[in-house]
Specification:
The complex is a heterodimer. By secondary structure, chain A is mainly alpha-helical. Helices cover 77% and strands 1% of the residues of chain A. Chain B is globular and about 60 Å long. The chains are: A mainly alpha, B alpha/beta.
């Protein structure tokens, strides 16, 4: 009874092979064309597959909840919800491209929001009707706070040689604690109406929230810097082989400090954006920001070992959890299914990265 | 014979109580392949590191084209036209051949874009193709990450990278240690081309056959000193081994 099975299996295999052969040949000749090689190269990266996953997810949710998922309202609210996360994830992409990690982003974001709000509330005054000068000051304080934490992270990692995981875990605790101390654990609710207006305003035919435009601009600039400039080249080179970068004459310490400073600064910007969106400091709302940002970066195809990173991938990696969350919610499932699904995608992303590394090491 | 291009004189280097080099001399002449050989622990790698600027000598001097020089860092060595191919390659595996070739010496776009930090990848790729071509390195896919290349191709990229920027001397520390027969032959061919370009090549190798095959001259270290010098032609493996293991008297010793 069992005897025919191997030959049947062989038959099926050969049938598949002969069936696939012309396809494979066609793909082979296609991938040698100019356009084809671009496509082929794109699909050798994680980002393209993740993008495909995002499209498929949107298609599925739209199919299961027609007229509810891909509506202007839902797409806008999804975009608004990922804007802040995208900004810190762009900074995280650069850090992880160097082979490091920045755990502190969520609480640096919070710290920057608190210092910014307190500056605008200086002396207990009601800032509701404050002018642009106060808002600008608040903005500068938010950016400056983020920058300061980022530089501190960079110095600890690059100069003191403390592993990034521990260095930024330390500054996570410090920035969190200080934010709680400064605010007495109370959310500051009084902010200039200008900020609230900014958070609620829409541009481009009154359809796109301003914060989304800011986040997309940050991502676009990040993508250009990472892939087209010397700064980006040094970032991945350091992540790929720090010693090689050093021997090539690159000032590795300085570059690392700049990268962590950039991550901190973007966290500061995100803190200000968060103030604008929620019109309060949202003290208890940032516990998972760092892990969400890291998950987004990793899902987007950035290697945990550094050296490989794209901001486009990160952008998609930010969107996937949001799409899952929104989709599950609309379909009436508990939104915690998102966490289950994101966890699985995360593991899958790292697994495929490991596979690729193992495959190339065998050469 | 012409004057030496690069000379090390009386180099001393201690690591704690270990005397790696004890008054070591070394000469490199223009347009030659000189092999630096010696048993394990003879001080070859230390000497190369000092000449390439990654380590500092405790005593002694380095002379380049008749002038005493100070090589405080690999960067200074590079500026002086001295490049090193390290045993562990020192490439960024995730970057392509062109990015590796130009690492730390990127070509920027002209004008404002360049000032903003934009790379001129097109020029760099063309330059890389030319540099690899000159050394007979065939990269089927120049845009593929170096990690995807075979060991020999990777080594060739590392060698090409050094050669492209070296105007005077290239140090090669065991460049064929991890390679197969065909790849080894290719790298050795590359080393010959370095010399043909008017650059001196210093080859560290444990493979005596290989040394005799391509070296114009051979210098032997033992216990941190130079103990013998040979012309490449006419030397035998027995002579080399004897010098390495102390079978003949130390050069210059009483």
């Amino acid at each position: 009874m069992t005897a025919p099975q191997p030959s049947r299996a062989k038959f099926i295999r050969s049938a598949i092979q002969t069936g696939l052969k012309p396809l494979a040949e066609r793909w082979g000749s296609f991938s040698r064309t100019r356009f084809g090689s671009v496509i082929a190269r794109a699909f050798s990266t994680n980002a393209a597959w993740i993008f495909l996953l995002l499209i498929v997810l949107m298609f599925i949710f739209n199919f299961l909840a027609p007229g509810k998922f891909l509506t202007e309202f839902n797409v806008r609210s999804m975009a608004e919800n990922v804007a802040v996360l995208l900004v810190i994830a762009v900074g995280e992409t650069f850090v992880m491209a160097t082979g490091g990690i920045d755990l502190s982003v969520g609480y640096v974001l919070l710290f920057s929001g608190v210092t910014s709000a307190q500056t605008m509330n200086w002396g207990g005054r009601d800032p509701t009707n404050s002018g642009w000068d106060v808002v600008l000051l608040g903005f500068v304080v938010a950016i400056g706070s983020g920058l300061a934490w980022g530089v501190l992270n960079g110095l600890i990692v690059a100069k003191a040689k403390v592993p990034a995981l521990i260095a930024t875990l330390g500054t996570l605790g410090m920035s969190w604690g200080l934010a709680e101390i400064l605010s007495n654990g109370q959310d500051l609710r009084y902010l200039p109406t200008i900020i609230a207006d900014m958070g609620a305003s829409r541009v481009i035919f009154d359809k796109v929230p301003l914060v989304v435009v800011v986040a997309v601009t940050v991502a676009a600039m990040g993508a250009v810097i990472l892939s087209l400039t010397k700064f980006g080249r040094y970032t991945v080179a350091i992540g790929s082989n720090q010693e090689a970068a050093r021997r090539a004459g690159i000032n590795v310490d300085r570059h690392l400090i700049l990268v962590y400073a950039m991550s901190g600064t973007l966290a500061g910007l995100a803190g200000f954006m968060s103030l604008a969106i929620f019109t309060t400091t949202t003290i208890s709302g940032h516990a998972n920001d760092n892990l969400q940002a890291i998950a987004a970066v990793v899902i987007g195809g950035t290697s945990l070992m550094g050296g490989v990173a794209t901001v486009a991938g990160t952008t998609i990696g930010v969107c996937i959890p949001m799409v899952l969350f929104s989709g599950f919610t609309i379909l009436g499932y508990q939104s915690f299914w998102r966490d289950v699904a994101v966890g699985a995608v995360l593991i899958l992303a790292v697994y495929t990265d490991q596979l690729r590394r193992r495959r190339r090491e065998r050469r | 014979m012409a004057d030496p291009l690069l000379q090390a004189r009386g180099i001393v280097k201690n690591y704690g109580h270990v005397e790696a080099l004890r008054g070591c001399d070394f000469d490199v002449y223009p347009n030659e392949i000189v092999a630096l050989i010696g048993d394990n622990g003879a001080g070859k790698s230390t000497l190369i590191k000092i000449l390439a600027g990654t380590e500092q000598a405790d005593e002694g001097e380095i002379v380049l084209e008749g002038h005493r020089i100070h090589v405080g860092s690999p960067f200074e060595a590079m500026r002086l036209g001295i490049e090193t191919v390290y045993q562990d390659l020192a490439l960024a595996p995730d970057l392509d051949g062109s990015a590796n070739l130009y690492l730390g010496r990127e070509v920027m776009m002209a004008g404002l874009l360049g000032k903003l930090g934009f790379l001129d990848n097109k020029t760099m790729r063309a330059g890389a193709r030319k540099a690899f071509g000159e050394l007979g390195v065939d990269l089927q896919n120049a845009q593929s990450a170096v990690a995807n290349l075979s060991g020999g191709q990777r080594q060739s990229v590392a060698v090409a990278r050094s050669v492209a920027w070296a105007s005077k001397v290239v140090f090669l520390d065991e460049p064929t240690a991890a390679l197969g027969v065909v790849q080894t032959a290719r790298v050795l061919e590359t080393v010959k081309r370095i010399r043909d370009r008017g650059v001196a090549a210093v080859l560290i190798s444990h493979n005596m056959r290989q040394v005799l095959e391509i070296a114009d001259r051979i210098e032997v270290l033992r216990l941190g000193r130079r103990v013998a010098r040979f012309e490449g032609k006419g030397a035998t493996i027995e002579q080399l081994v004897s010098a390495m293991t102390g079978g003949i008297a130390e050069e210059g010793a009483a």
